[in-house]
Specification:
The chain has about 375 residues and is α/β, with parallel strands linked by helices. It contains 12 helices and 10 strands. It is globular and about 65 Å long.
Length: about 375
Amino acid sequence: MNQCPQTDNSPEVSLLVPIYNAERYLEQCLRSALGQTLDDIEIIAINDGSTDDSGRILESFAERDRRLRVIEKPNSGYGASLNCGLATARGEYVAVLEADDWMEADALASLLHHARRGDAQVVRGNYWHYWSAPRERNVLQRVVPEGFIGQTIDPARHSELFSITPSIWAGLYRRDLLEENAIRFLESPGASYQDTAFAFKVWAAARRVLLLRAAFVHYRQDNEDSSVKSEAKVFCVMEEFAEVARFLREDRPDLLERLAGVLLREKLRAYLWNLDRLSPAARPQFLSVAHDDLAGDVAAGHLNESLLRPWHLCELKALLKDPIWFLTLRASRSGGPASRVRYYYELGGAPLVARVAWGALVGH
């Protein structure tokens, strides 16, 4: 159980499982990983300094199945754990399974089959929101655009892919794509949203992506310890986008001009989503930082209006013009359909209301 050990084995898939104090769910997770119908896999479990019974559970499973390798490391966060797993992975493809989630038995076999059939660098599917209590329940999340299902496409020609929910554990990635483009996770101890920058980098670098309608992973919703539920970590999403900007500026400057507008669009969408989930007391400070960040992008010439939906463009302009007024207006939209209509009317009048209604009708 060394830290980031090296190996010469070359399985078809390396499945990375980052773990921190996951004793309540870890056995179900590992059973689903070791029960895969694809046998030629390695499962790399990275124990991030857990203080609960996770270590003992890992030892028990590793003794029974040689495909499970355990890395013990001091606690340094989700991103550092996955980077450690990537450093030791030797599979042709890489997948991620979080310790409180579980996957269908044919998940890796199906993803690999489609990857080979479509000569894809990345394969992404849908997933389920999963609750184990008070009764077991799965709700399918259709995050993959229907118009792209079953096609091997180039994200350079379809920037819509950058707007897909990151959910990196719902996919399979060629390891050479990650290696050749220096795609790694931001290592911020205690941070959240660390799939945000990783997913953007993948879309930026990949040229052959296959999207599937099928779902393979059950994403747990009843883990109260999930870091994404922590309001205190909301500014982490801004650090993720700062890492994307660094990646484009330093590692892939050839992509900067083409993707600067896409990056601004995804920032705006993520910042508004985070704004809505915050308590009223936390919103002003978050919006102030978001305002300065977005204003800097616009001043740098990164705004491409053609990439934005009409309502997003109106929201951006209102946010930049008068953040306090926009914050009050945004808070008023939570009162039901009528309040949402008033919200869009205040932003752009009757024409915008009509565009929003049409967008909802056609699924945009």
